[in-house]
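Sequence only, no structure available. Ideas?
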Amino acid sequence: MTQPVIVVGAGPVGLGTSLELARFGVPSVVLEQRPAPSTHPKTRNFNTRTMEITRGWGSLAYPRFRAVDTPPGWKSPIRFFDNVTSREFGHLDTAGFEGPGPAISPALPVMSSQDRLEAILRDAAAATGLVDLRLGHRVTALLAGSAPTDDHATVRVETGDCEYELTGSALVAADGVDSFVRNAIGVPLEGPQGIHHFVNCYFHADLESHLGDRKGVLLYVAGSAAGVLQPLDARGRWLCQITVQPDDWDRAKWGDERVTAWVRAAMGVDDLEVDVRSVGTWRMNVTVAERFVHGRVVLCGDAAHQFPPTGGLGVNTGIQGMHNVAWKLALHVLGIADHSLLDTYDDERRGPARRTADQSYENFQNVARLGAAIYGFGEQGLSADAILTETRRYGNHLGVEFGTRYSSAAVVPDGTTPPTVADDYSDYIQSATPGCRAPHVWIGPDHAISTVDLFTSGGFTLLTGSDGGTWLDAVAELRRNLRIPLAAYTIGSVGLDDDGTFFETYGIDTGGAVLVRPDGYVAWRSSRGGPANTLVDALITILGRNQP
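Reply:
I predicted one. Tokens follow.
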């Protein structure tokens, strides 16, 4: 039996890793130092691409996530107030939080809170029967796994008054900003740290009855209270983020009375009832780890990169990065792929993470400049209109979600390039060029099936047409000789009806074929029929395998 993968951290990225590994039948042990699930909401946004990923985590995962989404009208705009019941100075539309719609994806984004999203993830993980979640288990030493020659990972774990050692086939560090694992293997973070300091407060209060038509995703205030209010469910659950000076960045200084006073001032309602549930602190970093893969140790999520909150890209980039590496790790520990495949995680994700960090910080600065201009204490002579155009990209981040093109040994180029866009942060055009996210196309009777859902089986997927028999023969050979998990679908066959949109979008004819990786990215493409060995060679190259 395959040794379990050790996952350190039971936040969205760590639990997501365990669910992705389970798709391949790989067990995992998830170690979380907290003795109980966190009730502090933290992040709010699972974007459209992340929600596409959740569709592979069991039949109830996606519907349950959708069930905790905020009601319509709460994902846009960003509003700027003196206080919320007083003067509104301006607003910024943020359509990106509402998703691109059914032409781009079958999924819809969710705006909720991390405590509720994690509860769904824990249930989904338990349902696999392959995830051993251990709360109150803290990793105190990394004993093996980070050296290039290591064939396993071993950690020392402390729980209560006991200590034990745990050995697994590999280790995924999803243990956050101050990652013990990252520090243990001596990987530095590149980029500025501690740029701003924040107090983050979770509370219950009936703010909704005072808002009227002033709904929004972020409600900035800059009167006697300065910061931002964030709705969690439009039913009385709220977060506020307060920017403070380093000498005021102390949880002990922010008791219930001080938080209540801040919320009342931000709303302009002196007698508002406020039930403070929890208070946290965090610092803004714009950092990326020097390397993501070290032997059998993989860094994911905030352990690998930290972004400003602009666009809600932190947890989403973490989940999408985890989605990139989990299948590679699974196939490696199962003996199907060489370690060289695992190394492509670093090749494919580190550069985009660096760009996303820089872009989100640029957008954070632009939103801050916009707010300063709106409130009248910005740069000399700078109007809100002067910076609104560059700030609008914050409200539309499809390029970041969908538009990354991978270039590594896990992609076989076909000599084509995807369409160019004006802004690779906000703009996106679907393309089946190798290295791109495989496009969403509606197929089947009444267009009820998305191609995206064909890629959730836990393996590679080959899509071909009615004249693609040669490719199907190659699939049979790959399954038989190399034990490669590989699904194959003939578009236009029973239940997979197509009106021509699929072949046009994917750039192939009915004799062509597209090979899609387990993470939904195009690995290889032949626009028309060809010898079966080209597909076989492509997969062998991607997996770092020898010829059968």
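The chain has 14 helices and 27 strands.
Hope that gets you unstuck.
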